[in-house]
Amino acid sequence: MKTRTKKTPSKPKSNSKISSISLNGKQKLNAEELLRLEKEYCSWGDTVHYAEEPKIFERSEGSYLYDIEGKPYFDLQMWYSAANFGYNNKRLAAALKRQIDTLPQLACQYLHREKIELAARIGKANEERFCEKGRVHFNVGGAQAVEDSLKLVRNTTKKSLMFAFMGGYHGRTLGATSITSSYRYRRRFGHFSERAQFVPYPYCFRCPYGKKPDDCGLHCVKQFEKQFETEYNGVWDPKAGESEFAAFYVESVQGTGGYVVPPKNYFVELKKVLDRYKIFLVDDEIQMGFYRTGKMWGIENFDVTPDIMVFGKAMTNGLNPLSGIWAKEHLINPKVWPAGSTHSTFSSNSLGTAVALEVMNMIEEEDFETKIQQKGRYFLAALKDLQKKYKGVIGDVDGLGLALRIEVCKPDGYTPDRELVDRMFQLGMEGNLTAGKKKYGMILDVGGYYKNVFTLAPSFDITKQEIGFALDLLDQLFRKAIG
Ligand SMILES: Cc1ncc(COP(=O)(O)O)c(C=O)c1O
What we know:
The protein has helices spanning 16-19, 31-41, 78-81, 90-102, 113-130, 142-157, 174-178, 219-226, 266-276, 329-332, 350-365, 368-389, 418-430, 464-482; strands at 57-61, 64-67, 72-75, 134-140, 161-165, 197-199, 236-237, 242-243, 245-250, 280-284, 308-311, 322-328, 394-400, 403-408, 433-435, 438-443, 446-447, 453-456. By secondary structure, it is of the alpha/beta class. It has 2 domains: 72-86 and 368-482, Alpha-Beta Complex (Aspartate Aminotransferase, domain 1); 103-365, Aspartate Aminotransferase, domain 2, CATH 3.40.640. Strands 4-12-11-10-9-5-6 form a 7-stranded mixed β-sheet, with helices on both faces. It has a 5-stranded mixed β-sheet with strand order 1-2-3-16-15, sandwiched between helices. It is globular. Bound molecules: pyridoxal-5'-phosphate. Pyridoxal-5'-phosphate is lined by residues 80, 141-143, 146, 169-171, 251, 255-256, 284, 286-287, 312. Pyridoxal-5'-phosphate (PLP) binds at residues 80, 141-143, 146, 169-171, 251, 255-256, 284, 286-287, 312.
């Protein structure tokens, strides 16, 4: 038998570069030191390393982020539409500070005033909009709220299969990933037995059926309904009068899919089909909710009432990860959705509910609908001028409210040009754009089925002058990137 000689454990090999960085909390590390530590100690599994050279930011205000050297970056994506009401919004910060001084922590099993008032305000807002009584259930993070909505659907129907859109995005927990179209998010994580059946979205610029919006007669809805024609299409049992699919998850305007706006009557026609086959409409408002499209909820632009709604992000202007679901009373009343149906320690945390309540105050005091629609029209008109200047290269611009898109193409006006978009994105991050004698960066978000779309979600407080400024920076980016 081999005997092991007892060795004194050797010291782990020190990485001289890293160990030379003092981490006693007394010295302020510079950007280079922080980036070296980040490379070594942070997981790269999030989205930071999508960028070639990640950037560290230190301050934010209004429409601007400031890097560690104090250089301003004009932000046209506002944290993927989480910070709709501007960075460092003083009124919302004050609400947060007030709550920190009164009830900063409370286990979610107990009640607090702000939670109750917030749920009631959202519930009443939806009663006004949809003439439907409902209830609200809070959680943290968009994907977790999507999970709760899946549980709610499954609880009611006892079914676990869903329809969802190609190009749709609902988050990256396992359940949310199973209804998110991109296989890239599932590939390394085993088999998703309950993966949704993905249905083409009405993306008219690239119609999946090769039709033109003027005379297509909503061919896409007809194609969807065709699945129910016979049991042999695999979704419907005509004898039992039941579908194998419980709900259809939709984003009224696709977010990550490239801020694609559907034809006006698409959802009305789709809802008729869903009602005929007893399939719930679950409306994911996580990115488009809270006035991004000029209405409180994106779906309001399309005249249908969802059965369940999911929201998050801008509900707290990104100051707290509070999220939630709203559902019609018959789906969520205490008889069918009793205590303990779902829970998280942080679900209705008091800091989040206090800020969200202040957001509700703001949107009830000010006419955001008019404001966002006016600014959106002005911005879109400016984008159309830019499109004329870069004919072909900007294949499409469109928008609803302040959810705007620039689809970048090869000079033929149609073939996606992802490389150009990547160059522009990097140039924006480099921060060498100029205005007068000052240097600026630009923060853009890239989306779309071919990653060739700038999805613009500017701050609601953006002024006409700032829109002009943003257009000037975009112009510089196109000029530099095209070369
Ligand atoms: C439409 C939509 N649903 C769900 C999510 C997931 O939300 P979260 O990132 O907060 O988990 C997102 C995030 O971008 C989203 O845009």
